[in-house]
Write a structure and sequence with these properties.
The protein has nine helices and eight strands. The chain has about 250 residues and is of the alpha+beta class. Bound molecules: flavin mononucleotide.
């Protein structure tokens, strides 16, 4: 994936690419603006985004630019605020799978989340298969050190309770071998959650299991042949609960 340069027939010398490039890779040389990549380009694509005449030449980005309507309207604060405030962590799900198209849309939301230095190394695993999910739950329980705790979880399982994933039909796992992804995954999952909400789905972070699986590496290896670190787990599906109001929250301390 590379930025190749500038189509000089299209370039109107507005210099926006020079101002926008975070690494300073665009310069004015004689009559033209040139791209020299002296600082390794991070492929953030801000040059592509800011160029009024679409003059930036790139290849193999595995995506095409999304052109904005003119005027470009974003949602109002009230709409977004309503979404943010009404979204709950869902722990009751219908026994109903989410269609593939909606799952793909959720993954698309992660795709467009910001990541540090634009290093797009996160990988996504979605566990839908019930046998695999049960295998995961049982492996987690088997790996618990305390016999007492283990027995308590096994009792829950006999009562058909899923103590970790709240019987959600899908488990989304973000993983990689890049430590920066510990932060990137948080943002990725936040985007995924908000996208899921607009598709009529509920979701919830599953933080405890994430830590446990990173500790008990043999489970990841055995079930998913995974050596990566897990940086985020989100369950999702159709909510089996209806809320009538958003609960109060304390103000952010200043
Ligand atoms: C980093 C993080 C980890 C979480 N881990 C779990 C978890 O393991 N299990 C769970 O049921 N909820 C988990 N949650 C959900 C929180 O408990 C929930 O966000 C909080 O109770 C507030 O509820 P709300 O999201 O509906 O506003 C987690 C949330 C975050 C942000």
């Amino acid at each position: 994936m590379v930025i190749k340069g500038i189509d000089i027939d299209r370039c109107n010398l507005c210099r926006e690419c020079i101002k926008e490039c975070p690494l300073g890779n665009f310069n004015k040389s004689n009559e033209d603006i040139i791209f020299d990549n002296s600082e390794n380009c991070i492929l953030c694509g801000h040059c592509i985004a800011v160029c009024q005449n679409n003059a930036i030449i790139y290849e193999d980005m595995k995506d095409v630019a999304f052109h904005f309507d003119d005027p470009f309207e974003i949602q109002s604060f009230d709409t977004i605020y309503k979404l943010l405030r009404s979204k709950r962590s869902i722990r009751q799900y219908k026994n109903q799978e989410v269609p593939k198209e909606k799952i793909e849309k959720i993954i698309e939301c992660i795709r467009y989340a910001p990541v540090g230095m634009n290093k797009r190394t996160l990988k996504c695993l979605i566990i839908t298969n019930e046998v695999k999910r049960n295998e995961l739950i049982d492996s987690i329980i088997d790996a618990i050190d305390s016999e007492e705790e283990k027995e308590e979880y096994r009792r829950k399982r006999r009562e058909k309770i899923d103590p970790f994933f709240h019987n959600a039909p899908h488990i989304l796992v973000l993983h990689s071998n890049n430590d920066w992804d510990s932060k990137n995954a948080i943002i990725g999952i936040t985007y995924a959650m908000l996208g899921a909400e607009t598709l009529g789905l509920g979701s919830c972070w599953i933080g405890g299991v994430q830590m446990f699986l990173n500790e008990k590496k043999q489970i990841k290896k055995k079930l998913f042949n995974m050596e990566d670190e897990i940086f985020g787990i989100m369950i999702f599906g159709y909510p089996a609960v209806k809320y009538f109001r958003a609960p109060p929250r304390p103000p952010i301390m200043t």
